[in-house]
TrEMBL record, chain A:
Record localization: Endoplasmic reticulum membrane
Bilayer-crossing regions: 119-141, 172-190
Record protein name field: ER membrane protein complex subunit 4
Organism in which the protein naturally occurs: Agrocybe pediades
Membrane topology: Multi-pass membrane protein
Recorded family membership: Belongs to the EMC4 family.
InterPro entries cross-referenced by the UniProt entry: TMEM85/Emc4
Signal peptide stretch: none
Keywords recorded for this protein, A-Z: Endoplasmic reticulum, Membrane, Transmembrane, Transmembrane helix
From TrEMBL, chain B:
Residue span(s) of domain EMC1 first beta-propeller: 23-228
Quaternary structure and interacting proteins, as annotated: Component of the ER membrane protein complex (EMC).
The protein's name: ER membrane protein complex subunit 1
Record's subcellular location: Endoplasmic reticulum membrane
Stretches assigned to the ER membrane protein complex subunit 1 C-terminal domain: 825-1028
Organism: Agrocybe pediades
Membrane-related topology note: Single-pass type I membrane protein
Entries under SMART domains matching the protein: PQQ
Coiled-coil segments on the chain, per record: none
GO biological-process terms attached to the record: protein folding in endoplasmic reticulum
Signal peptide (UniProt feature, chain positions): 1-23
A UniProt-annotated Pfam family: EMC1_C
Annotated family: Belongs to the EMC1 family.
Keyword Transmembrane: yes
Length: 220, 1030
């Protein structure tokens, strides 16, 4: 696997230009990118370092980059094209299968942690205390956090031919992921309800009720 | 640096330990509360009840019986109460009779009960029922037909009771040694006075004959009580109470009866055989004989027809009475008012007779004391004293005492003030009319700043003016800042449990600063109007009288009369800015039977007349509102405060009556209704009325709209309005443990109606077969008491309960009839009654006092909502409510009850109760919750803090608000919110006055007393310093 940097903004230009710079060192790519006229590099580029499984694929734009110095495979620089010619098909499929499997793992991960969370809830009791409140808050907030970061979470498992950031990538996994997160949320809400924190009764809204003046007055 | 932090740590830990001391509740005594012991206004109608000085073992005390049915001994030095004995209401005191060391009383119907007290300590030495109260003959005046004389050398006393029975009673055991009852009880003879001679007891009385009374004398043998003889002395007394006196002298054997017959003296000496003939004395023109309490020493005062007076003394040898001293200038004149006479025997056995009168000429009181001596005695001559008639009315009664050479006068005024004058100086005074307060009302007072700065001016000023003023005010900012820092550092905030701040001192003596509230609003004014024509403003934080005014009689001042206060309304409160104004609506009953309705409109802070008719310091004259009696008067709140009054014809009178109030009244009149009690063909009814506005110059009229006809024999006892007093309803419902809501049934028009049900006894069976020995059900047990809760606009009966009335009235000394006490607040009704034996009832026949708590909620179950507070009275939903009620065994008989009230109504309402054992106690609302389950509480119920039902209300002595004070005969309890939501002021009045604060849900809105401000400041500064230095 190659550790690479990528940036959504620079994907396309880099892909287009890649063959010309195939022999260049990665750092030189970086310099070219900086020099590229349309580019204004955001400062966050360095922080968005991620493990990019897509580099495993034959079609990857990074495929032809030389391995970094000292990397064992880089020694067979001459004959690298011969084995790579037939291997990519096999590796792509297996990679995809692997990624899919990993994506399923991620999708049902919230559901897997539920028994543990349920046990924690049981242990924390029904009183309103710092522990139970902490756990309940975790249960209530993590689903939203997870769903908000869903595309990023699944981007690395995206099949080779699709856009890793798109919502339509891995749709089934994402649906299951959302459902599992909702399950967590549901458990959190159930806990809230059992602790009496949900404003479900009329009593919770009593303070907002108002009454007008009486139509008739008694002087007495 | 390490040293520094160590110091900080040590300092803060030290302050932590020093600071945590618990504030004791005892420290609040006398700080948060005050009480005033009262004895009531002396009964000055007769010599046997009116105040007198009494020398006991060399100590002078003042004894008096009072209109509040109290026998009291006062300290002549400072006016404090040495002791007092409170008689039951049905046990009216008829008179007290002094001995050297003891005081005997006769009380009850016909003098049924004899008591004997130690004169110095008030210890009850003897209590003896002489006859059944039922056979007691009623007499008018009350003291007639009762007398007690003490045997001079033994412990026995001779008691005349019921006008016909004379008993010899052992003073220590109460054993009746002999008793004699006049054989002709049916005749018109009433015995009035007992007199002892060597071996004979004389009873003198009056026999009614045509047009006048005849003197009647009876002679009894002293050791055995056998009747020697009795005789009708030929005489014709027109007014036996004022024209007859019996004079004796310890050194003379024969008592002399003296009376006036057609303006001339006649007398007769009483001998055991009663054979002496009445004789006449030359001279005529005498009007009255005044008993000055010295008849046993041979002195009396005689008034001539022209009111001129002289002291008469029984002369031994001749056996007749002679004038010894003529009072100067005692003739009725324009310069002087009527004179009062009093006499006393000093420690040396010398008699002193005083004449006290009001001098129109000097505008002062005047006294003239005659001291008996050889040959005739001497007098001090007329001396004046600065009696303030404008504050205290007229001199009603005078008692004189001579503790040393100088005479002292105890003066009882017509407004109920008791004053002791030592020569010309006022030594002390007691405002005893505060024991006769009819109505009292809390009045909130403004802050100091707002009362000084004109609020109206600020409201009217323009923008520029305001900016200029505020820039001008800004120069005070540095001082404010310094004060703020000082206050922050030292933590000297006003504390609710600190002693009340001293009343604002007069900075410049010319203009006294107006009365203002304290930080927490505990200082309010209690406007109290008494039955004796005086209105007081009492500082609620200390109990001192801020001002008082005598209510004037208006035109009736010429013929005499009295002012009976009916209601007090606050017509201008603090929130409206400016001065607080109250209106006292009163009925003036002139002596010529004319009744008028008068409104007295005063500034509550100063007592000055808002109408400007009567200047300060003078008698307060009111404005005649209705020429006739008042049927009812109400305060119409809202945007304008208008007093709406109705006369006998139900015509509407407004006060104040001006175009704006008339407009306002016209705009709301169609919404108004009020209930009145009426009687139509012997059936008692409650009739609701609405108002028909008149289109022409006639007065608007109220017309009946609904009636609530009570069943035959049911009589209205009281109508109790809801406790409103402007306190809002904080929550319209009650949330249950399962999160549903019981919506409170809130109807501002509801009122409580208490009735007496006199079911006629069942008719005797027509057939004669009923065996006579079969016990008939007692007719008294058919009496019941009804409790209704009625809507005032339509007459809908929301709640009705009937409880048994206690047994036959007066059977056990406790009055029968319905003594139900009730209070109604929001949706909570609580009432108290006595549960007598129940025949076949389900209560198990246990007697005792019960407290019933009732709550009304909308709908039949939780979450049902009918919006009752804005529901029209004519809606079908008005009876869609559920009632929760529970009865509790209550430990005491009570005389008054009320619920607490707070500013926003958030704090729970406690029940304040004045018990018969002279205490004021609070009961938690939680204990009186009618939803307390009859089984173990469920989790939901526990969440509501409901406790399992227990029939007995916990009687927690820590909830006794009155501590160990004796707060006797409380007639009414009123509560008022303070500025602290947690705290409510409670004022109980009756015989005694008592004010305290209660916090039913604890003082959640103030820092506790043991909060350590210094520690906090030290810790914060220490930490800040530590952070900064690192």
């Amino acid at each position: 696997m190659h550790l690479r940097m990528y940036c959504r903004t620079y994907n396309k230009p880099v892909v287009r230009r890649a063959p010309e710079f195939s022999e260049l060192h990665a750092s030189k790519v970086m310099t070219r990118m900086i020099k590229y006229p349309r580019a204004t590099l955001p400062s966050t580029i360095m922080s968005q370092t991620a493990l990019d499984y897509s580099t495993l694929e034959s079609s990857s734009k990074w495929r032809n980059l030389p391995p970094p110095p000292g990397f064992s495979k880089s020694s067979s620089f001459v004959d690298k094209r011969v084995p790579k010619k037939e291997k990519p098909a096999v590796t792509t499929e297996s990679y995809d299968a692997l990624k899919e499997k990993r994506a399923w793992d991620v999708a049902i991960a919230p559901a897997k942690s539920l028994p543990m969370q349920a046990f924690m809830l049981y242990m924390s009791g029904s009183g309103v205390q710092i522990f139970s409140i902490g756990i309940v808050f975790m249960l209530l907030f993590s689903p939203f956090k997870n769903i908000a970061g869903m595309n990023e979470a699944f981007a690395q498992y995206a099949p080779s031919k699709s856009d890793p950031k798109s919502i339509t990538t891995l749709p089934l996994h994402k649906v299951v992921y959302v459902l599992c997160n909702l399950l967590t949320l549901g458990v959190g809400l159930w806990k809230c309800r059992s602790m009496g924190l949900l404003p479900t009764g009329t009593g919770d809204w009593l303070a907002f009720e108002t009454r007008g003046p009486a139509p008739e007055l008694s002087l007495f | 640096m390490r040293f520094f932090t160590t110091v900080v740590a040590v300092l803060s830990s030290v302050s932590l330990y020093v600071g945590t001391t618990w504030a004791l509740h005892e420290s609040d005594v006398g700080v948060v509360d005050w009480h005033k012991h009262m004895v009531g206004i002396p009964l000055s109608g007769s010599i046997s009840t009116s105040p007198s000085f009494h020398l006991v073992n060399g100590k002078n005390i003042i004894l008096t019986a009072t209109t509040n049915n109290v026998l009291a001994a006062l300290e002549p030095e400072d006016g404090s109460i040495i002791w007092r004995y409170i008689f039951d209401p049905e046990d009216r005191i008829a008179g007290y009779y002094k001995n050297a060391t003891t005081v005997a009383t006769l009380s009850g119907p016909g003098g049924a009960i004899l008591r004997n007290f130690n004169a110095l300590t008030g210890e009850l030495l003897l209590e003896k029922r002489l006859h059944k109260p039922e056979i007691g003959a009623l007499s008018e005046p009350l003291h007639l037909g009762k007398d007690v004389v003490f045997a001079p050398h033994s412990n026995q006393m001779y008691v005349l009771s019921n006008g016909c029975t004379i008993s010899c009673i052992d003073g220590s055991t109460g054993e009746v040694i002999w008793s004699w009852t006049s054989p002709d009880q049916g005749s018109m003879v009433i015995h009035a006075k007992l007199t002892l001679s060597q071996s004979t007891l004389f009873a003198t009385g009056f026999a009614k004959s045509t047009a006048s009374f005849t003197l009647h004398a009876t002679s009894l043998s002293l050791p055995t009580g056998e009747l020697n003889t009795f005789v009708n002395i030929p005489s014709a007394l027109a007014d036996p109470l004022h024209q007859f006196i019996l004079l004796t002298r310890p050194d003379l054997e024969k008592p002399i009866a003296i009376w006036l017959e057609q303006g001339a003296f006649r007398y007769v000496a009483l001998t055991p055989d009663l054979l002496e003939k009445p004789r006449s004395v030359k001279g005529e023109g005498f009007a009255r004989l005044v008993d000055i309490g010295l008849s046993e020493f041979g002195y009396a005062v005689v008034l001539r027809n022209d009111e001129s007076s002289f002291v008469m003394r029984l002369e031994g040898m001749v056996g007749q009475a002679k004038p010894v001293w003529e009072f100067d200038d005692s003739k009725a004149s324009e310069a002087n008012a009527d004179s009062r006479y009093a006499g006393v025997l000093d420690a040396h056995g010398r008699a002193h007779v005083s004449r006290v009168y009001w001098s129109h000429h000097h505008e002062k009181g005047a006294f003239d004391v005659f001291t008996a001596g050889q040959p005739h005695g001497f007098s001090t001559g007329a001396k004046t004293f600065a009696f303030n008639t404008k504050d205290h009315g007229i001199i009603g009664h005078v008692a004189v005492g001579v503790p040393d050479s100088a005479p002292i006068h105890l003066i009882t005024t017509s407004t109920g003030s008791v004053q002791l004058w030592e020569q010309e100086t006022l030594k002390w005074e007691r405002e005893e009319s505060l024991a006769a307060v009819v109505i009292a009302e809390f009045v909130e007072v403004p802050e100091r700043a707002t009362s000084v700065a004109g609020v109206m001016e600020e409201a009217q000023e323009g923008f520029v003016a305001r900016v200029i003023r505020q820039i001008g005010d800004a120069q005070d900012f540095p001082r404010y800042l310094v004060n703020f820092v000082k206050r922050f550092a030292t933590g000297s905030y006003a504390s609710p449990s600190s002693p009340p701040p001293p009343p604002p001192t007069t900075s410049n003596s010319s203009e006294p600063e107006p009365f203002s509230r304290d930080t927490f609003g505990f200082r309010q004014l209690i406007i109290a109007a008494t039955a004796f024509g005086k209105v007081y403003a009492i500082d609620s934080s200390t109990g001192t009288i801020v001002w008082s005014r005598v209510l004037g009689l208006g035109w009736a001042g010429q013929v005499g009369g009295r002012v009976q206060p009916v209601k007090v309304f606050v017509v201008k409160g603090v929130s409206e800015g400016g001065d607080v104004e109250v209106v006292l609506v009163a009925q003036r009953r002139a002596s010529n039977t004319l009744v008028d309705t008068v409104a007295f409109h005063v500034n509550a802070l100063t007592g000055s007349d808002v109408l400007g008719k009567s200047p300060d310091g003078e008698v307060l004259e009111g404005q005649d509102v209705i020429e006739g009696p008042l049927v009812e008067g109400y305060l119409l709140g809202g945007e304008k405060k208008v007093i709406v009054m109705f006369d006998e014809h139900l015509q509407v009178y407004l006060y104040p009556s001006n175009p704006s109030t008339i407009d306002y009244f016209s705009s709301v009149a169609h919404k108004l209704s009020f209930p009145l009690r009426t009687t139509i063909e012997t059936r008692k009814r409650i009739t609701g009325h609405q108002i028909q506005l008149s289109s022409d110059h006639h007065k608007s009229l109220a017309y009946p709209t609904w009636t609530l006809t009570l069943p035959l024999g049911e009589d209205v006892q009281a109508m109790i309005p809801q406790a409103k007093s402007g306190v809002p309803v904080a929550s319209v419902g009650k949330v249950l443990g399962n999160r549903t809501t019981l919506y409170k049934y809130l109807d501002e028009r509801l009122f409580v109606l208490l009735t007496v049900v006199n079911t006629p006894p069942p008719p005797p069976p027509a057939t004669g077969s009923t065996p006579e020995d079969k016990p008939q059900p007692k007719p008294s047990h058919s009496q019941k008491c009804g409790i209704y809760v009625v809507d005032g606009a339509k007459g809908t009966v929301v709640y009705h309960a009937e409880v048994k009335a206690p047994g036959t009235p007066g059977a056990n000394g406790k009055g029968g009839g319905c003594q139900v006490k009730a209070a109604f607040s929001e949706n909570w009704l609580v009432y108290h009654y006595y549960e007598d034996e129940v025949e076949g009832g389900s209560v198990g026949g246990s007697k005792g006092y019960r407290m019933v708590s009732v709550e009304f909620y909308e709908g039949r179950k939780g979450d049902e909502k009918i919006m009752s507070s804005e529901l029209t009275a004519y809606s079908n939903d008005t009876l869609n409510l559920s009632t929760y009620e529970q009865a509790y065994v209550f430990p005491y008989a009570i005389t008054a009850l009320a619920t607490t009230s707070t500013k926003f109504g958030i704090t729970s309402k406690d029940l304040i109760v004045a018990t018969n054992n002279h205490r004021v106690q609070s009961f938690a609302r939680r204990m009186l919750d009618p939803r307390r389950p009859n089984r173990k509480t469920t989790a939901d119920e526990q969440e509501e803090f409901l406790i399992q039902y227990d029939p007995l209300l916990p009687n927690d002595p820590r909830r006794v608000l009155s501590h160990n004070y004796d707060v006797a005969n409380v007639q009414k309890i009123i509560t008022s919110p303070s500025l602290l939501e947690s705290t409510s002021l409670v004022f109980a009045f009756g015989l005694d006055m008592f004010l305290t604060r209660v916090a039913p849900s604890n003082t959640f809105d103030v820092l506790s007393e043991n909060f350590n401000k210094v520690q906090l400041v030290l810790t914060v500064t220490g930490l800040a310093a530590a952070i900064l230095s690192f």
